[in-house]
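Review form for a predicted model. The reviewer records the input and the model, then writes brief findings.
Reviewer: anonymous (R2)
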Amino acid sequence: MKNICTLISILIISLTVYFSFNDLSPSSKKSIESTGFSVENALDHLKVITKEPHYTSSYYHQEVQNYIINELDKMGLETEIQNQVVLSSRRVGTNAANIIGTIKGSRSGKSLVLLTHYDSSAHSSFGASDAGSGVVTILEGVRAFLSKNIIPLNDIHVVFTDAEEIGLLGAEAFVKNHKLIDNVGLVLNFEARGSGGPSYMLMETNGMNSKLISEFANANPRFPAANSLMYSIYKMLPNDTDLTVFREQANINGFNFAFIGDHFDYHTSLDTYERLDRNTLLHQADYFMSMVNHFSKSDLSNLDSDVDYVYSNFPFLKLIYFSNSWIYPLLILSAIFFLVLIFLGLVLNKLQLDAILNGIIPFIISLFVCISLTVVLWNFIVFLNPEHADMLHGFTYNGYFYIFGFIFFNLFCLLLIYRPFFDKFSDLNLIIFPLLFWIIINLLISLFLKGAAYFIIPVYFVLFSILAAFIFDLKTNKLMIVWTCLSIPLIYMFAPQLKMFPVGLGLKNLFISSVLLILVFSLLLPIFSNYSQKKQMISLTGLTTLILFFMAFLNNGFDEENKKPNSIVYYTDLDKAESFWMSYDKNLDDFTKQFLGENPSTDVDKFVSRSKYSTSYRYINKTNYRDIASSTVEVLTDSVYGNKRKVSLRIIPQRKINSLQIMTKDSLVFDSLAVQNVFLEKENFKINSGRILTYIPSYNDKRVVIDMIFDNKLNSEFNLIETSFDLMTNTNFNFKPRSKIMMPMPFVTNDAIILSKNISL
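Model under review:
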């Protein structure tokens, strides 16, 4: 009988884990066919959009722009291109070309914006997921919505922004300069930070979220994937989207729908039509159709609220949420309930004080051993695999094997640590201290991280499980089954998070999964303590761990499907007529060695170039000087009045340039800074040294005019750096191309020709 109950319990837990993942996203086209959304149509769009990289200022960027406009025209939308020079507070500018289409509503209320960006990441990404998936979701979703011949109550504006990848510049151009912004009530933004996995809902609001959560639930998405802890963490991270600009600069609420799975494809040349997860596209489509059908007829005039909600995925209900005002009452009530149960257990002789105190030992050992071993083992893996250091986002191709390998490794350790205690002490005694630990965690959450306050929900299920065990005198098999059933919400809520955090935050954060697993395991002790064949279970868990790590080892290398990133740039100091090859790579390969040699110099301090993830050049090798045409610089104005100096420069590129930078070696205090007659909003700011301005020339920019007013007391020495992404095709060079198992490194300037020269005033 015990064996049968054990099998039933394992089956319930396994099915709960399965459905906790399965319920996060659709798995077949049938799930959205009733909405009229055609995945085939969306993929047809995607195939065209992703033929070539289409970053801002690239040739194919224009082709994608024309394609989107043509598709909007076919659907009968009022369409326009907003060409607007924008200069952000980070002193990055371009001439953005936003594509805007409008579906007129039947009333004059606040409008709905459907948002994504159509530029890919420079310079090699095909942008299938980021954000081609958003583009095709909107294009096909709008077609499906219009096919029902329903006139929306609210105006709907389709906004495909430009230059998102270089600083959210298209969104800033729209928010600051377009007349439609004054009537926008809500924004739905479709984004990606990987090429697969469930799409998570993340809000943007300057106030409280209760109305947004309520409206989201009322829209009834069939596969909502959301929790308020993830939202709280998102707000702490610097990974902004276009929607952030709407919130910060126009106080407009909105929803992000973004997926992070297969993070290794993010911003790389592997972000292709073929690798975009079709189920992920279905998930975006489900969000789109449910949200548009709801918000096209909702009152968008007042989505602000003065109450925050805590929310999480929940079995059968899809999404559970409650007010922040419940946090302290729930916490206090749980503490009282906990103390009453301890008293009742001691009085009824269901609990023993010495056994409760002994239950502290395995829990503390588990925390120390599991977290320590996870950190040490991961660092050892990193040491054994130095080539993975060049995957800058921190998620390797075999990352999923590592995640599940560490989960089973930690489970193996937990079972091993607790086994002798299972034999000596009753299950209810062992769970008392972990339950107290959960209550303490919830106290800290209530003070510092309210988004995680749904952690109180499992506490109540455990408290009621203990009460049931007391009242009905549940033991062994009956206790195991009842506890398993009452633990379904705990397992359902937390199982996906064991995978989500290391995917989204990088494998170096595997210890977060360890902590979560220990917390979950500790509330399942009455289940595991009553399982039969514990020794065999430990052996099976250990064997599974070895298999997963072995699979990670087998998939550790690079191949045509999982390419090795590398980088090379050609840098020329035009004033000195000196040229260098430089690379960001930690590990040189056959491709980079042909430029840098076997023992390149690491003396790159004077060429420091910080990119995302604080990456700098690592290797340098002097090479032959090539005569490559550089931009001409004309000083239009150089005048002094009082203690101020006004300088106007006109830069005329002599070839296709993808980036212009004005640098300074001195400290300068600026009164104003402008590019193409668009002024930086910030005045009287100081630059100690380094970059003054970055400008990405578009096809509309035949020349670039920069105006500066700064303190004349300080010596000024300017430097112009121009970058083009044509190293691989420039006829001045002849070298062996990358092999089929290599690709350009993302997040850094790569495959580029960089020319530097001083500007004489």
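Findings: The first helix runs from residue 2 to 22.
Further findings: The CA atoms of residues 57 and 699 lie 6 Å apart.
Recommendation: see findings above.
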